[in-house]
Specification:
By secondary structure, this protein is of the alpha/beta class. The strands form two sheets. The protein has an eight-stranded mixed sheet with strand order 4-6-5-10-11-9-7-8, with helices on both faces. The protein has a three-stranded mixed sheet with strand order 1-3-2, with helices on both faces. The two termini are 23 Å apart. Helix content is 36%, strand content 13%. It is built from 15 helices and eleven strands.
């Protein structure tokens, strides 16, 4: 029988329904793959019993003809989605041992659709990072290696690094991720998989540990565009428990998939040609333009003039919101508590936060507290919000000339563990292409396009109009069909 962990989510769904294999066989295969991949450090908690219980339900449902959209499919869940009775730590020591008594809306919807859970996936602490090196559980190691004869451990990107590595290594057919400034798209590009961040408000944020509330958005990561469409349908929908949730019907994205782009105009923003970006990135971008032309699209040059301010704007707004959100972790209500002998309540707060937060989280809390302080609020936070409005205005103007925008996903291929940790600015630049769409709340996805000279995956990035996930998925499918990307990392773990 074919190795089940090599199949896409769509192939698993259809094969299970056709009786080619049982849900139990699927769960057993992925549980075994997860157990054998400790070297990747992708999972922080494994829940094989959960995957098996859901598989038995799915096998019984197939007998009775009562199948649900994701019956028989086990998923990996990023460790900042609350899951009842299962550790939810957001990659932080301060939430050690926290087992929520409630389920996030997104994971509840996936469960209602029949999916099982393979475990919780490692991530940058509170989703703050672009390399998965800030996790309290240690870094995730990419399953990919350079082809230069070296054996350097590479990052899978971040913050959804565990999610990306799990899909790339065949440890899950699909996973959840979250994207605040590129945390689904950049790791998807680094590991040769597909990931989509929907319009802000498409997926409920209820039960997701908050980083920057006006930016955080859940989305799926998987091997193909069709797999992402299937998962996104199951995850999306209005939720009265989330004040930012969009009250709109969920389209049948899988049914609407089409790679025929005739009549569509694709914008190429001139400001995204950035000095210092490797030639291979720009060459793949040009190839992507050719693929979309071949699919019938018309290519037009557009301008997003405030793009150069997006990264500094993001690194004012996101830390400001994070410093507010993370104030709740004080040793009283959640996880870790450090109580110095003879100390008062303030001493407990200080000791708990000093011991519980990692260096990157502390750095962003300090930045956020500074930009929100009385003397600097208008100079930084208010001004950043004004620039954010200009960036949104840029996109609105651009979408009067085009239907979609194509850019590279990241300015480089995956880099080595430790190579950029000492230079926060170099690390922040990883999200230079992804952040503008996040600030504007637009749907965007990364699709693998090819390999660089060292044999590492590179991604192409599609941005759509608000609520036009179908347009983004269709253009992604057009690239996927023409790129024919089938490379997989050689197993070494």
């Amino acid at each position: 029988m074919v190795e089940l962990t090599t199949l896409t989510l769509t192939q698993l769904r259809d094969g299970f329904r056709a009786g080619d294999f049982s849900a139990r066989e699927i769960a057993d295969s992925f549980n075994a793959a997860v157990a054998a991949a400790k070297a990747l450090n992708a999972y922080t908690v494994e829940t094989p019993e959960d995957a098996l219980a859901c598989a038995e339900t799915a096998d019984a449902a197939r007998q009775s003809g009562d199948l649900k959209p994701l019956s028989g499919i086990p998923l990996g869940i990023k460790d900042l989605f609350a899951t009842v009775g299962v550790d939810t730590t957001s990659g932080s020591r301060i939430l050690t041992g926290f087992k929520p008594p409630y389920e996030s809306t997104v994971t509840a919807r996936l469960r209602a659709a029949g999916a099982g859970m393979l475990g919780k996936l490692n991530m940058d602490e509170f989703a703050m990072g672009s390399s998965n090196e800030t996790s309290a559980y240690g870094p995730v190691i990419s399953p990919w290696k350079r082809n230069d004869g070296g054996n350097a451990a590479l990052t899978p990107g971040g913050s959804s690094g565990g999610s990306a590595a799990a899909v790339a290594a065949g440890l899950a057919p699909g996973v959840t991720g979250t994207d605040t400034g590129g945390s689904i798209r950049q790791p998807a590009a680094f590991t040769g998989i597909t990931g989509i961040k929907p319009t802000y408000g498409r997926c409920s944020r209820w039960g997701i540990v908050s980083f920057a509330s006006s930016l955080d958005q859940a989305g799926p990561m998987s091997r193909t565009v069709r797999d992402c469409a299937i998962l996104l349908e199951a995850m999306s929908g209005f939720d009265s428990k989330d004040a930012t949730s969009i009250d709109a019907p969920v389209p049948a994205w899988e049914q609407g998939l089409s790679s025929d782009l005739r009549g569509k105009r694709v914008g190429i923003p001139r400001e995204y040609r950035i000095d210092g970006v490797p030639g291979e990135i720009n060459a793949l971008w040009d190839q992507g333009i050719a693929w979309l032309k071949d699919a019938g699209a018309e290519i037009v040059e557009i301008s997003l003039p405030h793009t150069k301010y997006a990264l500094p704007t993001y690194y004012i707004i996101a830390p400001a919101e994070a410093s507010s959100n993370l104030a709740r972790y004080d040793g009283v209500r959640y996880g870790l508590r450090e109580a110095p002998g003879g100390g008062n309540l303030d001493a407990m707060y200080a000791a708990t936060r000093a011991a519980g937060f990692g260096a990157e989280v502390k750095r962003r809390i300090m930045i956020g507290t500074y930009v929100l302080s009385a003397g600097f609020y208008d100079a930084y936070f208010t001004k950043a919000q004004r620039v954010r409005a200009l960036i949104k205005q840029d996109f609105r103007a651009a979408f009067e000339r085009c239907d979609l925008i194509l850019t590279p996903t990241a300015p480089s291929a995956a880099f080595g563990i430790g190579e950029k940790m000492s230079d926060p600015l170099a690390m922040y630049l990883n999200d230079v292409f992804a952040v503008p769409a996040s600030l504007a709340g637009l749907p965007a996805m990364s699709v693998p396009g090819g390999l660089d000279g060292q044999g590492l995956p590179l991604g192409l990035h599609l941005i759509g109009r608000e609520m036009d996930e179908q347009g983004v998925l269709n253009a992604g499918l057009a690239i996927e069909e023409r790129a024919g990307f089938s490379a997989r990392p050689e197993k070494w773990w």
